[in-house]
């Protein structure tokens, strides 16, 4: 099993398309928790996802309740990425089948979703900064989770320094 990304009621098609492309590039599934603020076939979604959408494993869940039924059945942890996170994203020990949940652009996630998460993580920001773009936050957190769990693909030949010429 691999890590998975989940988007809570995403508002902006281009961000969701970017994250669909990111998921496809790392062979991960993307879970969209509806309602989204755009039709999932939206032109902006397709433009940002490009031809990677053909290989993206996207599941749409009609509600958070439906998403939770899937997740609990799969016995995966729910890791909420939130500006209100109690733990720095580099301090969490990720599991290879964690689901990384990103909140909606306009409002994050509601309190009951916050409460049900197994872990709540944040990317620490400079004093006074409110939040990152959701796709950038997802990419940073996914990078750390893949690094820790050995999830990067076979395209990486070596992580040793190149020999001197
Ligand atoms: C634009 S932000 C949401 C802003 C919203 N007002 C809030 O405070 O939750 C959209 C999503 O990106 C992710 N995100 C943005 N900045 C983050 C950070 N510094 N740490 C963790 N997640 C972040 C979270 O999943 C967040 O719900």
UniProtKB/TrEMBL annotation:
The keyword Kinase does not apply. GO terms for molecular function: methyltransferase activity. It is found in: Cytoplasm. Residues 3-142 form the tRNA/rRNA methyltransferase SpoU type domain. S-adenosyl-L-methionine binds at residues 103, 123, 131. Keywords: Cytoplasm, Methyltransferase, S-adenosyl-L-methionine, Transferase, tRNA processing. InterPro entries: Alpha/beta_knot_MTases (IPR029028), SpoU_MeTrfase (IPR001537), TrmL (IPR016914), tRNA_m1G_MTases_N (IPR029026). Pfam families: SpoU_methylase. The keyword Protease does not apply. It catalyses: 5-carboxymethylaminomethyluridine(34) in tRNA(Leu) + S-adenosyl-L-methionine = 5-carboxymethylaminomethyl-2'-O-methyluridine(34) in tRNA(Leu) + S-adenosyl-L-homocysteine + H(+); cytidine(34) in tRNA + S-adenosyl-L-methionine = 2'-O-methylcytidine(34) in tRNA + S-adenosyl-L-homocysteine + H(+). One of its GO terms (biological process) is methylation. It comes from the Bacteria. SUPFAM superfamilies: alpha/beta knot. It is an enzyme of class 2 (transferase). Its EC number is 2.1.1.207. Gene3D superfamilies: 3.40.1280.10. PANTHER family: TRNA (CYTIDINE(34)-2'-O)-METHYLTRANSFERASE. Homodimer. Belongs to the class IV-like SAM-binding methyltransferase superfamily. RNA methyltransferase TrmH family. TrmL subfamily. Methylates the ribose at the nucleotide 34 wobble position in the two leucyl isoacceptors tRNA(Leu)(CmAA) and tRNA(Leu)(cmnm5UmAA). Catalyzes the methyl transfer from S-adenosyl-L-methionine to the 2'-OH of the wobble nucleotide. This is tRNA (cytidine(34)-2'-O)-methyltransferase. It comes from Ancylobacter vacuolatus.
């Amino acid at each position: 099993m691999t890590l998975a990304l989940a988007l809570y009621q995403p508002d902006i098609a281009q961000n969701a398309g970017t994250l669909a492309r990111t998921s496809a590039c790392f062979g991960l599934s993307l879970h969209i928790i509806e309602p989204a603020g755009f039709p999932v076939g939206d032109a902006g979604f397709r433009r940002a996802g490009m031809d990677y959408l053909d290989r993206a494993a996207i599941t749409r869940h009609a509600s958070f309740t439906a998403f939770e039924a899937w997740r609990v059945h799969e016995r995966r942890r729910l890791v909420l990425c939130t500006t209100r996170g109690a733990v720095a994203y580099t301090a969490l020990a990720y599991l290879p089948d964690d689901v990384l949940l990103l909140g909606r652009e306009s409002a994050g996630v509601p309190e009951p979703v916050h409460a049900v998460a197994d872990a709540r993580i944040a990317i620490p920001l400079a004093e006074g900064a409110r939040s990152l773009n959701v796709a950038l936050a997802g990419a940073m957190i996914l990078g750390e989770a893949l690094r820790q769990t050995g999830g990067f693909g076979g395209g990486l030949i070596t992580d040793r320094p190149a020999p001197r010429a």
